[in-house]
Amino acid sequence: MNIFRFCGDMSHLFSIIVLLLRLRVAKNAQGISVKTHELYLLVFLTRYLDLFTTFYSAYNSVMKLVYIAATASIVYTIKFQEPIKSTYEKGQDSFLHWQFAAIPCAVLAFITHLIGSGIADFNFMELLWTFSIYLECLTIMPQLVVLQRYREVENLTGNYVFFMGAYRALYILNWIYRANTEKNYRHHWVVYICGTIQTLLYADFFYYYLKSKAKGGKFSLPTSASK
């Protein structure tokens, strides 16, 4: 544990709390992608299977359970709970997340894990962990597509996406810190590459978010033609 990882975890947790607050207060799901959270739920379920096999710390176990439960709650609320369900615009949330995210990541994870370990040392838990790393890289894509279509971003929604992106950026600092302070730190290049790509996907959003905060005006994304 270090300050960067702790702040990253808290930023992630805060983003979830902001989104749940947004759904409960506004009573609508406009501008929210349920597909992003379906992908996140799949990421957590495949990555945190070690809850049943290995105990690291109470903090670690509690955070994993909170991420799973809170993300499942978001998906359930948007898809099944009225009046929020009626406000969810499925037509805007049209990114084909299973076809263009989950399935390609599963295939890539299988190929890279098989090449790396071979048939003799094939480990299903490791395969699912690798899959979760690849998939998390793309989880925000459906949400960014929805925001681009709405263009004008509601304040709490913008805060939620910002803190989600900050979580990834802080984890990059966490990796750098650990690599320079832990003698036997194990480098995971797949994690580094996927984490960096995921953070870069937020770059455009960060720019316009911080620009709107500096000016104190409404947060809106430009059209493709105006960029």
Quick tags:
10 helices, 227 residues, mainly alpha, single chain, two-stranded antiparallel ribbon
Folded structure, characterized:
The protein has ten helices and two strands; from the N terminus they run αααααααβαααβ. Helix 1 (3-26) runs parallel beside helix 3 (58-80) and helix 5 (97-117) packs across helix 6. The chain has helices at 3-26, 34-47, 58-80, 84-87, 97-117, 124-136, 141-150, 155-181, 189-201, 203-215; strands at residues 152-153, 219-220. Strands 1-2 form a two-stranded antiparallel ribbon. It has 227 residues and is mainly alpha-helical. The chain has one domain. The longest helix has 27 residues, at 155-181. Helices cover 71% and strands 2% of the residues. One of its GO terms (cellular component) is endoplasmic reticulum membrane. Its main location: endoplasmic reticulum. It holds the Pfam family ER_lumen_recept. InterPro entries: ER_ret_rcpt (IPR000133).
Mean pLDDT over the residues: 91
How many strand elements?
A: 2
* Structural classification: mainly alpha
- Intertermini distance: 40 Å
| Strand arrangement in the largest pleated sheet | 1-2
Given the structure, what is the number of helices? Answer: 10
Shape: globular
Radius of gyration in whole Å, from Cα? 18 Å
Number of domains: 1
List the helices and strands and how they pair.
Layout: H1 3-26, H2 34-47, H3 58-80, H4 84-87, H5 97-117, H6 124-136, H7 141-150, E1 152-153, H8 155-181, H9 189-201, H10 203-215, E2 219-220
Antiparallel strand pairs: 1-2
